[in-house]
Amino acid sequence: MRRLRILSQWTFGLFFLFLFFNTRYTGEDVIPYPVNAFFTIDALAGITAMAAGRKIILFFWPLILLIPFTILFGRFFCGWICPLGGSLDIVGRKSRNRSPSPTGTFYPVKDIALLILLVASLFAVNLSGLVDPLSILIRGLAMGVVHPLEKSVHILFDTAWRLGGPVTSVTEPAYGYLRDHVLSFELPVFRYGVLFLGFLLVLVLLEIRERRFWCRNLCPLGALLGILSSRTPFGLSIEKSGCTACGRCPETCRMGAIEGKNKQKIRKRDCILCYDCVESCETQAIRHTAVPGGTRDAGPVLPLSRRAFFGALGAGVLLPLTAGRSARPDALPASVIRPPGAVPEDRFVGLCLRCGECMRVCLTNGLQPTLFEAGAEAMWTPRLVSRIGYCEYSCTLCGQVCPTGAIRNLDKVTKRRVHIGIAMIMKDRCIPFVKPQECLVCEEHCPTPEKAIVFDDVPVQGPEGPVIIKRPRVLPDLCIGCGICEYKCPVQSESAIVIVRDGEDREKG
After folding, report:
1. In the chain, what are the domains?
2. What angle do CA 108, 113, 114 make, to 5 degrees?
3. Tens of pLDDT along 41-99?
4. How many CB atoms within 10 Å of residue 318?
5. Which of 248, 278, 242 is nearest to 263 (CA)?
6. Would you say the pTM of this structure is higher than 0.70?
7. SS3 content of the chain, % helix, strand, coil (to 5)
8. Helix 43-53 vs helix 63-73: angle between axes, to the nearest 10 degrees?
9. What CA–CA distance (Å, rounded) separates 411 from 403?
10. Residue 86: is it exposed, middle or buried by C-beta count within 10 angstroms (0-12/13-18/19+)?
């Protein structure tokens, strides 16, 4: 079973990477793979998104199977499926503490975090994406790892191309394959990328300190699955009649799940069914049992002290009351432009998982993560930064990959009519307004069939006398706020035309 578990981890890990590398623009308008498939079995993401969004999200239908199987057999997701857990297991071979104690200083943190997230979601504030393992991994890879990795690849192959000769006969085919199947359409650059990369490195360092530190102490998804597993009737158990208390199994348990005076009891909420203990037992005293009463954990389902429980409960209530103000549409800064198809802000913040899938797939790299621009409760949600990249007129990729419907999947015709904002000309920076010189860039690049930017002929005083200058003017009814005018504006630093939220169209979803 241990070898089968390792095979399962590698299979799901490679499948995760396959989906991740296909979450990108490949020249096609439709992504042929369900690149967000892992979220369908993310119980934390599903429960909090449905609670905060006040609706049943059919996308999470596999939870109907996962939750009962977890209740019956235990926390197998963490040991057999989770790509973050599998990645940490690779690093865990170098852990200083390979057999952590059953409890510790940080052990209750994950349960406190889970309670806060669940209570806050009942008040329509969904913060689970900040600490959900799948969101952390995708966000960290997409925004912290991909840029330096792809940049290194480009430097390597550019150097090989300059060398020429027989070297290029090997490197060019390899580069062609990577370009078509792995590399992004444009080299992605994300704000706060150092933070995302740094968080992944922190997880690695914690794993080196103690094996499965994240999973045992900090992961709220693990806490949720642990609660579901704490009364499992078919988990692993130690038969005391066959146990010699040799101490081998506690030394092999990466989750510190074996407790008791003689280390003869497996705590089901922490057991991830890795089967290391089964292989280490010479007397074969560790096995699955079908005795319903014999495998249940003692004590409460949520192992928190009264103080910790009520503290977490209070924090879960307090967060929405203090941090929910900016979810109101009238409180959102005018510069925060949401993707086309985004539902109204209060529902958007409740549904968005902060997974980064939409930002990863954006072909112009215009979708960027927020920090505190839209409020603390909206951290890492997507916004369009037109100076970095515009919203391509016919692109619907972000809606295709959104797991929860925070960004609706629009067809091309509908998407072209959606207003995400409006362009405003900054007359103190726009060339035709500050000097007698014409600039036609914004109008030339406007993608709407009937141009949303027109010109007014205005007489001005030039260096050699009066001249007629074309000054741009935005037609509000035609402008969709795509941002290509801001992106293409030749004015250095801040653009002379910017996109603001006025006139945005966000239908209820």
Report:
1. 2-142+195-288 (no CATH), 420-504 (3.30.70.20)
2. 100
3. 999 999 999 999 889 999 999 999 999 999 988 899 999 999 999 999 999 888 888 88
4. 14
5. 248
6. yes
7. 45, 10, 45
8. 130
9. 17
10. buried
